[in-house]
């Protein structure tokens, strides 16, 4: 088992910032999203919703006609078209990045010195590019595929029991991180963030399992993009791998608590930021009536989690 360090409320408190007097939409970070496709237009909306919920100062969306008009009709805050950005999110809702009309732009983003979340169909670009400043966000089967493309073997053949699968998955994420030099965030009930060269991975154990529904990974990718853009815009130097990994971990932690908050709201209860803070302070005791959520419910709960995190300690 690789060594892990749980990501906790105090870590989130250190990382989440509120806008200050001199801030503008640009200083809060510009996020570029090249997500969604004619096949999966909904993922474009969900990833943009994740970025907006995470507090993006300015969002650009680059994509084909159907997802573009869907994004504009659902989220008029988003500006359509490419342009200067502090971070990017690519691949969510793209079946195959190699076959996508944006393939050239996607490859450029993978190889640029720009913090970039590489999700779903864009993961297939990693094996035949020279990636730089990327956070790879595979789920288990995408990690397996990526390992295979990189010549590192698969995990599916080695599955035997939950604990063994987790161990093997952690090792596989570590070898992809070391081989590519990029950060790997492996999604699941437990999410791990592995940084190349770092001994310890960050670990987020979800306080509920209601996030296990289609589209929540798209929300996560967008939210991490917004966090990266904010951190990059605040910094006078390019973000280090370590700083990027902290933002990815923050994204996974906020996402897990947003799922918890949305599931509590599904019971009909009005859950305040104060109650969320109480649950986050004593995660082992977090309880209450819960019910099914949609990915968009999760995105809507993100601002409450951020408000709870920003409360005075
Ligand atoms: N609203 C939107 O627009 C949405 C768009 N989305 C977008 O869709 C794209 C494809 O993403 P994806 O994760 O679904 O695909 P993929 O990487 O192939 O993994 C497949 C995994 O599922 C499993 N599996 C398959 N069928 C199964 C079954 N019947 N019952 C059980 N398991 C089954 C299969 O397991 P296997 O059988 O291979 O072991 C494998 O583990 C991507 O771009 C994403 O962003 C999503 O975010 C959703 C919302
Ligand atoms: N059993 C579970 N418990 C808690 N969280 C889960 C569970 N299963 C999946 N998740 C979370 O839900 C999200 C699913 O992402 P992903 O697999 O990319 O789905 P999609 O492509 O449909 O968006 C991830 O953030 C993952 O950590």
Automatic annotation (TrEMBL):
The residues that the entry says bind AMP are 187-191, 217
Q: Cofactors per UniProt?
A: Mg(2+)
Extract the Gene3D superfamilies matched here: 3.40.1190.20
Catalytic activity from the UniProt record? (6S)-NADHX + ADP = AMP + phosphate + NADH + H(+); (6S)-NADPHX + ADP = AMP + phosphate + NADPH + H(+)
Instruction: Tell me the ranges covered by the YjeF C-terminal domain, including all copies.
Output: 8-287
Q: Does the keyword DNA-binding apply?
A: no
Question: What is the E.C. number?
Answer: 4.2.1.136
What top-level class of enzyme does the UniProt entry assign? Answer: lyase
* UniProt entry keywords in alphabetical sequence: ATP-binding, Lyase, NAD, NADP, Nucleotide-binding
Function, in words: Catalyzes the dehydration of the S-form of NAD(P)HX at the expense of ADP, which is converted to AMP. Together with NAD(P)HX epimerase, which catalyzes the epimerization of the S- and R-forms, the enzyme allows the repair of both epimers of NAD(P)HX, a damaged form of NAD(P)H that is a result of enzymatic or heat-dependent hydration.
Oligomeric state and interaction partners are given as: Homotetramer.
Q: PANTHER family from the xrefs?
A: ATP-DEPENDENT (S)-NAD(P)H-HYDRATE DEHYDRATASE (PTHR12592:SF0), ATP-DEPENDENT (S)-NAD(P)H-HYDRATE DEHYDRATASE FAMILY MEMBER (PTHR12592)
* Designated name of the protein: ADP-dependent (S)-NAD(P)H-hydrate dehydratase
What gene is it encoded by?
Answer: nnrD
């Amino acid at each position: 088992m690789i060594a892990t360090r749980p990501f906790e409320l105090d870590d989130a408190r250190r990382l989440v910032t509120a806008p200050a007097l001199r801030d503008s939409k640009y200083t809060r970070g510009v996020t570029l999203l090249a997500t969604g496709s004619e096949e999966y237009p909904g993922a474009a909306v969900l990833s943009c919703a994740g970025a907006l919920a995470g507090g993006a100062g300015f969002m650009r969306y680059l994509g084909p006609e159907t997802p573009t008009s869907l994004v504009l009709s659902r989220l008029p805050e988003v500006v359509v078209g490419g342009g200067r950005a502090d971070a990017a999110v690519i691949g969510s809702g793209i079946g195959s990045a190699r076959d996508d009309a944006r393939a050239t732009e996607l490859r450029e983003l993978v190889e640029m010195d720009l913090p970039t979340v590489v999700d779903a169909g864009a993961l297939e670009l990693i094996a035949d590019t020279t990636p730089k400043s990327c956070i790879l966000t595979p789920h288990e089967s995408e990690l397996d595929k990526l390992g295979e493309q990189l010549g590192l073997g698969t995990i599916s053949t080695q599955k035997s029991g939950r604990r063994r699968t987790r161990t093997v998955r952690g090792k596989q994420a570590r070898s992809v991180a070391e081989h590519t030099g990029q950060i790997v965030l492996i999604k699941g009930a437990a999410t791990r963030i592995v940084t190349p060269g770092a001994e310890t991975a960050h670990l987020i154990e979800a306080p509920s399992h209601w996030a296990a529904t289609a589209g929540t990974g798209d929300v996560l990718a967008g939210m991490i993009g917004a966090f990266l853009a904010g951190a990059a815009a605040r910094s006078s130097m390019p973000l280090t791998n370590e700083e990027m990994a902290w933002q990815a971990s923050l994204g996974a932690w906020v996402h897990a608590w947003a799922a918890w908050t949305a599931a509590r709201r599904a019971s009909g209860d009005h859950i305040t930021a104060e109650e969320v803070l109480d649950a986050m302070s004593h995660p082992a005791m977090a309880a209450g009536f819960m019910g099914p959520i949609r990915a968009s419910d999760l995105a809507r709960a993100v601002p409450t989690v951020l408000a709870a995190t920003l409360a005075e300690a």
